[in-house]
Write a structure and sequence with these properties.
Layout: H1 8-21, E1 50-57, H2 68-83, E2 91-98, H3 103-116, E3 121-123, H4 128-140, E4 145-148, H5 154-157, E5 164-166, H6 171-185, E6 190-196, H7 199-211, E7 218-225, H8 233-240, E8 246-250, H9 253-265, E9 272-275, H10 282-285, E10 297-300, H11 314-326, H12 335-353, H13 359-365, E11 395-402, E12 405-414
Parallel strand pairs: 1-2, 1-3, 3-4, 4-5, 6-7, 6-8, 8-9
Antiparallel strand pairs: 10-11, 11-12
Helix pairs in contact: 2-11, 2-12, 3-4, 6-7, 8-9
Length: 417
């Protein structure tokens, strides 16, 4: 259950007040604000005309399919810089570092962004193990870690890290959605699960298990894998011996594609295949062959630019037009690119609403979002946080792959965490 936060009108009023209350940087350039209610707050990385952000992503290595995400983010920032005067009058400088999805490299690159580049906030680090490797450091330095690209429950439920918050629906929420769907579609299902052996996979599995309790659905086989494994074929072969009715594919794109391919090769086993959201872009499915992924089920919270129902949607048309201009060659139908654009817009709205244009101000603003609309979110899904609720998006829809695209199935499903 969400706790109601500050209303948008109140936030807008706060922004107007902040223009007189917050002032600017100290005269000595010390990086703190010295006027009004914002006295003593950090202004590192932000001036009256500029805003510096940075993030780490796997631009190389086994998780490099996620490299499309910062393309969408950069395209949005370049668009608002060129055509909107920036965010709240500040031109955005967005620094991207490659960590290869290796936590030690993440630590190195985030320290570089904070200590050398002096970013205002770390924005959209990707991954559970990588983001976990730096959140103690960022909390100790009082640097916002805004809208982590990952759904680990910890990003919204750990009061000991107030400087960190996620964005997408949590893996616990995603597990709820899949459990509800399986209970409704196959009330006596026998389920096999492949999951990554970290918080990503464990959150999904734990949530699914919790949300089928007391039903006729049962888990009959589980196999885990490590992110460093070359293949999951042995695990999938073991799962196939269970002849389960449902296969939960809780894997990142590389391993999800291997699982889809192995499932397609096994003509004696035809389970309902449920694919986690992080692995459902067409870039995961196409190498497997679209004919081999018909009927696969996943979930969504973003509009799909490839879906004809959104062909004339103003937000999708703007996204396609500006992406072509500011990120030539980027694929507008790639979910990661779309997500990058949407999360950048989310940051812009949170920054604009912040009472103080400081690190403390954005920390507080992202935890006081009140039904904030983001144009590329599915209708009926908004951003909302408040005291005790650090989960901005808590709704999804089931989708099924048919033909050459995902088809939305059913209504918006609200989740409880």
């Amino acid at each position: 259950m969400r706790t109601r936060a500050i209303g948008l009108l109140g936030l807008a009023a706060a922004v107007l007040f902040a223009t007189t209350a917050c002032g600017g940087r100290d005269a000595d350039g010390g990086g703190t604000v010295g006027q009004g209610d914002c006295r003593g707050q950090q202004s590192t990385g932000v001036t009256d005309t500029t805003l510096k952000l940075g993030g780490a992503y796997p631009l190389s290595g086994p998780a490099s399919s996620y490299a499309e995400l910062p393309k969408g983010i950069r395209a949005y920032f370049d668009y608002v810089n060129a055509e909107k005067g920036g965010i709240d009058g500040r031109k955005v400088e967005y620094l991207v570092r490659d960590d290869g999805y290796q936590p030690p490299r993440t630590v190195e690159e985030i320290r570089r962004l904070v200590e050398q580049d002096q970013v205002f906030a770390v924005f959209q680090t990707l991954g559970t193990p990588t983001s976990s490797a730096v959140w103690d450091y960022l909390d100790q330095r009082r640097v916002p870690q805004v809208f982590v690209a990952g759904g680990a429950t910890r990003w919204g439920a750990d009061d000991a890290h107030p400087w960190t918050i996620g964005w997408q629906p949590s893996y616990f929420a995603e597990g709820q959605v899949f459990a509800r769907y399986v209970r409704e579609q196959r009330p006596a299902a026998r389920v096999a699960v492949l999951y990554q052996n970290d918080d990503f996979g464990k959150d999904l599995l734990g949530s699914f298990r919790e949300n089928i309790a007391g039903s006729g659905v049962s888990i009959v086989a589980e196999q885990s894998y490590e992110a460093t494994d070359p293949t999951v074929d042995p695990q999938v072969r073991t799962l196939a011996t269970s002849r389960a009715d449902v296969l939960l594919n809780f894997a990142t794109p590389k391993f999800a594609a291997q699982t889809l391919a192995a499932d397609a090769r096994d003509t004696d086993w035809n389970p309902l295949h449920v694919l986690t959201v992080v692995a459902n872009p067409l870039t995961t499915l196409k190498p497997v062959g679209l004919a081999n992924v018909q009927g696969v089920v996943s979930a969504a919270f973003l509009k799909d630019p490839a879906d004809p129902q959104f062909a004339d949607d103003p937000a999708v048309r703007l996204y396609r037009e500006k992406l072509a201009r500011y990120a030539p060659g980027a694929d507008p139908t790639n979910q990661y690119t779309t997500s990058g654009w949407a999360v950048a817009e989310s940051f812009a709205k949170a920054f604009e609403a912040a009472k103080c244009k400081t690190r403390e101000g954005i920390r507080d603003s992202v935890r006081a979002l009140d039904e904030v609309t983001v144009d590329l979110l599915l209708p009926g899904i908004t951003l909302k946080t408040g005291p005790g609720d650090g989960f901005p998006i808590e709704a999804m829809r089931i989708q099924r792959f048919e033909g050459d695209r995902w088809m939305l199935d059913g209504e918006v499903i609200r989740t409880g965490r």
